[in-house]
Amino acid sequence: MSLLNSFGKTNSDEIRERGTVNAFNSFKGWGFIRREKGKDVYFYYSDIDNEGLDLLIGDVVEFFVKEEAKGPRAYSISRIASKS
């Protein structure tokens, strides 16, 4: 489980994961990432680091994961490679 310190930063022992966007609905503001290892994770538009960045299906991203009631959620998402 990921924890944020009082400044909203991740703990130093946390490891960024890598995955591929396999669904993103920019109108509803959420999507899913297929992790390289483990269950798919959901995310909200607000979890993307770069404001205004629209992710596309097939984009490779890095992110942190935290457990929530709905399941694992990605946050602090940054695009590594675009599908196009």
The gist of it:
This is Cold shock domain family protein. With 84 residues, the protein is mostly beta strands.
List keywords for this structure.
84 residues, OB fold (Dihydrolipoamide Acetyltransferase, E2P), 0% helix, globular, mainly beta
Question: Which strand order do you get reading across the main beta sheet?
Answer: 3-2-1-4-5
CATH topology heading: OB fold (Dihydrolipoamide Acetyltransferase, E2P)
Number of helical elements: 0
Shape: globular
Distance between the termini: 33 Å
* CATH second-level architecture: Beta Barrel
Taken in chain order, the helices and strands follow as EEEEE
Top CATH class = Mainly Beta
Identify low-pLDDT runs: none
Number of domains as seen in the coordinates: 1
- CATH homologous superfamily caption: Nucleic acid-binding proteins
Largest sheet, described in full?
5 strands, antiparallel
Rg, please?
Answer: 12 Å
